[in-house]
Amino acid sequence: MKLWGGRFSKNTAKITDDFNSSIRFDCRLYKHDILGSIAHAKMLGKCGIISEEEASLICRTLEEILRDIENGLVEFDTEAEDIHMNIEKILISRIGDTGKKLHTGRSRNDQVALDMRMYLKDEIDSIKAMIVDLIGVLVKKAEENLDTIMPGYTHMQRAQPVTLAHHFMAYVQMFRRDYDRLSDCYKRVNVMPLGSGALAGTTYNLDRYFVASELGFDSITENSIDAVSDRDFIIELNADLSILMMHLSRFCEEIVLWCSHEFSFIELDDAYCTGSSIMPQKKNPDVAELVRGKTGRVYGNLLSILTVMKGLPLAYNKDMQEDKEAIFDSIDTVKACLPIFTKMIETMTVRKNKMYEAVKKGFINATDLADYLVKKGVPFRDSHNIVGRLVAYSIEKGKNLDDLTLDEFRKFSEKIAEDVYTVISPETCVKQRKLPGGPSYETVAASIQKTKEIFNIK
Ligand code: ARG
């Protein structure tokens, strides 16, 4: 007999049970479902809707069920549809009529909204902790590479010299924003929906604030229809996770490039690479590629939930059950990617000399040469043109700018003097970019210090 079987004269078809059932994926909500029920039962007792004895029997038994599930002693039942009815059924099987009182003043619609909010709060916290670990590693690597000069790129062409520290700290800014986005999302998840019933609240005089404070919620939802219909907190989280994955994926793309023979800027630790079944020489950056690849499924999940929700009339519709596999998968994916990505970065070797070799070629000091002429009184557009011609000349001669003799320089501009060589050295190019936000040693060191304070990194 189904818990809702009263108005039915026939059993549901087996195929309907299988199709309808969400227990195979929502079983992960068991702990939050039970803790939510305990708070609800306590409140029912406190408000005199059930007796205190009944409430405490229900709470004790729910705690037992929680322990049993954690010890692997409970098998869930597809016929009982979802985690909410599975737990309730087990409760009733243990304490009979008293167990039947738990669902007083509650619907699965507000119950599932509560469970998801509780579950997501925990997951947001754990993802935030993983981001802090990653930021910690990046900051440490940045500290070790404050004076590791490398080419910065635009259009994948060598552009201007930066440092590896500056480059890594660019990602730190992105991950800081990801962290902040999650904190912000948390605020909207942290609202307690129980008491909204199926959609129209309930006639019992429930103490919603009591339930909220028992469960550590900041506030309660303001409209019962919205509370059971709203999934935007799930969509928002998935959107935040998509942006986070996009950042990881860009970083992965660079890791893949940098450990290629063509770049050789870094070497990944053997423990985070794999080989080829046919080519004995291969050491492949599979971890980085997989993180980049898995970004697609997190985006897909976002689109999937958005699409599920777009045509739904208020209030609850069963379509909404489809939110779960999508957001669960996004969370699992992010939680699988972040720690291994962090390890991969932590253990990689930076080939400072290779980066420096790349800095020496590609005319990345051309802007600095143009600026040098500006400081000697040449208007920028003219100096840009002079240096452009100097670059063309150097390419023809197979030289770098700093290989040119003073005589060669002076054929292009009389203003160029002996001091040009210091000015266009990669070290000076970086050192002179000391304005806020720039790549100079001091600026980046200050940014590292600030990040360490924000995240309490030792
Ligand atoms: N398993 C359902 C879900 O995930 C729980 C809510 C069911 N409510 C209902 N009225 N059938 O959405």
Automatic annotation (TrEMBL):
Keyword Amino-acid biosynthesis part of the UniProt annotation: yes
Keyword Amino-acid biosynthesis: yes
Pathway assigned in UniProt: Amino-acid biosynthesis; L-arginine biosynthesis; L-arginine from L-ornithine and carbamoyl phosphate: step 3/3
UniProt cross-references to PROSITE patterns, sorted A to Z: FUMARATE_LYASES
Recorded catalytic activity of this chain's protein: 2-(N(omega)-L-arginino)succinate = fumarate + L-arginine
Protein localization: Cytoplasm
Residue ranges of every copy of the Fumarate lyase N-terminal domain listed in the record: 6-300
GO CC list: cytosol
CDD domains: Argininosuccinate_lyase (cd01359)
GO molecular-function terms, A-Z: argininosuccinate lyase activity
UniProt name for this protein: Argininosuccinate lyase
Annotated organism of origin: Thermoclostridium stercorarium (strain ATCC 35414 / DSM 8532 / NCIMB 11754)
